[in-house]
Design brief:
The protein is an alpha/beta fold. It has two domains: 7-251 and 451-475, 3-Layer(aba) Sandwich (Aldehyde Dehydrogenase, Chain A, domain 1); 255-435, Aldehyde Dehydrogenase, Chain A, domain 2 (3-Layer(aba) Sandwich). The protein is 39% helix and 22% strand. The strands form six sheets. The chain has a seven-stranded mixed beta sheet, sandwiched between helices. Helix 2 (64-80) packs antiparallel against helix 5 (156-168).
């Protein structure tokens, strides 16, 4: 079963938008149409802003305690539907069922986290210089939020933005991905059934450029939160400056992985390969540039290659499947482009390297070696199941190469030396670093990048602060 798709505006579900058009939602496993998604027109978008304005007036006056209760109820409802929502994710996005279940469960945890953090949006008293003067620092909701989310994580990414805004006392208009709308629709239904006041959460779909242009032009909207490509993020950030909207930008990455020669290369290869091919590599913090010290390179490459070759491609709903399809035909074309350039640059294919099957959007888990640092695969984010693996000699050399790109989202390193672990953690120029670990994304920790990978954080106390204004009150 798939979701009944609709727009949510002012507490009402609209099966048709005033744009009068829709687009098909495609199952990437077999190319069949799951449903048709209505597009919001100009009137719908205007209505969503009016509804969010009304919803904001109500929501910010509700105590943080009661807001948390409503959010907890939504998370509980979501958990009762994990299996059906996970199956919707598999159908519209392609990842295997186990990964979809993990994503859905994490989305519920995110909602619970922000529910509690909203109750802890503490201010402080600053001692005055004059007797009888109270100096207070308080936090207030920033205002109406416009949020935009991609297709690779249909519920976790929307959950971060929706729950962050609601926890802070803001209303929100979210445009989830048109390619993976069903799971987010079901999340919105949970919030409404939990008793969220009308207008506090609005969900729209449409032509992305048209939706963003209309929403960001509205002065009522005071913050935007975007997850997606660097190019689109820069464009939206520029638009936001016209009305001085605050922004959180979680943009692209190209995560380096540094494997030093004091580790067990087989153990590291098993861990990082599983993480690399999660969601067929369509993860913004996916490990994507592998630098392996010469002493363990051969063993690491052998084990990593064996892992890739052992993956079973297929529909994510089938129990035997260990890697699903790519989300759309665009990703297939991109994979072909990366492989072609790697070969032209003198690279060698150790595993995979081509499309798979006669239906759906499958691409073999691919490993390329002997590629120069200026090759396409080493300089641009692949967002797919391609892993370039190269060697390095010294600490200083690999740090320079790892930090050479404009991206700064995530990085990983493996070593048994405490001194080296500390040094590489300090040296890598990214917003998140995993040392002997890939656990860098949890509800309670900040998630975000630096440099061209964006600014601001989601998750942790930083994620709530992104939706709060700071006010200083001096009272005599």
């Amino acid at each position: 079963m798939y979701s009944d798709l609709a727009l949510l505006i002012g507490g009402e579900w609209r099966a048709k938008g005033d744009a009068g058009c829709s687009e098909p939602v495609i199952n990437p496993a077999d190319g069949r149409i799951l449903a048709n998604l209505p597009h919001a027109g100009a009137r719908d978008l205007s209505d969503s802003v009016v509804a969010a304005t009304d919803g904001m007036r109500v929501w910010q006056k509700i105590s943080a305690y009661e807001r948390a209760n409503i959010m907890h109820r939504a998370a509980d409802l979501f958990r009762t539907r994990l299996d059906s929502i996970a199956r919707i994710i598999v159908q519209e996005q392609g990842k295997v069922l186990n990964e979809a279940m993990i994503e859905a469960a994490m989305a519920a945890d995110v909602i619970d986290w922000y529910a509690e953090e909203g109750r802890r949006a503490y201010g402080r008293i600053v001692p005055g210089r004059v007797a009888g003067v109270r100096q207070m620092v308080v936090h207030e909701p920033v205002g109406i939020v416009a949020a935009f989310t991609p297709w690779n994580f249909p519920v976790v990414t929307p959950a971060r933005k929706i729950a962050g805004a609601l926890g802070a006392g803001c209303s929100i208009i979210i445009k989830a991905s048109e390619e993976t709308p069903g799971a987010c629709v079901e999340m919105a239904r949970c919030f409404m059934e939990a008793g969220l006041p009308a207008g506090v959460l609005n969900l729209v779909f449409g032509v992305p450029a048209e939706v963003s242009e209309k929403l960001l032009a509205r002065p009522e909207i005071r913050k935007i939160s975007f997850t997606g490509s660097v190019g689109v993020g820069k464009h939206l950030a520029k638009m936001a400056t016209r009305t001085m909207k605050r922004s959180t930008m979680e943009l692209g990455g190209h995560s380096p992985v540094v494997v030093f020669d004091d580790v067990n290369p087989e153990q590291v290869a098993d861990m990082i390969a599983a993480y690399k091919f999660r969601n067929a590599g369509q993860v913004c913090i996916s490990p994507t540039r592998f630098y392996v010290q010469e002493g363990v390179y051969a063993r690491f490459l052998e084990r990593f290659s064996a892992y890739a070759k052992g993956l079973r491609l297929g529909n994510g709903l089938e129990a035997s499947t260990t890697m699903g399809p790519l989300a759309n035909p665009r990703r297939l074309d991109a994979m072909d482009m990366f492989v072609k350039d790697a070969l032209e640059q003198g690279g060698k294919i150790r595993a995979g390297g081509k499309r798979y099957g006669n239906e759906g959007f499958y691409y073999e888990p691919t490993i390329v070696t002997d590629v120069p640092d200026h090759s396409l695969i080493m300089t641009e984010e692949p967002f797919g199941p391609i892993a370039p693996i190269v060697t390095f000699k010294t600490f200083d050399e690999v740090v320079e190469r790892a930090n050479s790109l404009e991206f700064g989202l995530a990085a990983y390193a493996f070593t048994t030396s405490i001194a080296r672990a500390t040094a590489i953690g300090d040296a890598l120029q990214t917003g998140m670093v995993g040392i002997n670990s890939v656990a860098i994304s949890t509800p309670e920790t900040p998630f975000g990048g630096i440099k061209h990978s964006g600014h601001g954080s989601e998750g942790g106390i930083e994620g709530l602060e992104a939706y709060l204004n700071v006010k200083f009150i001096s009272q005599a």
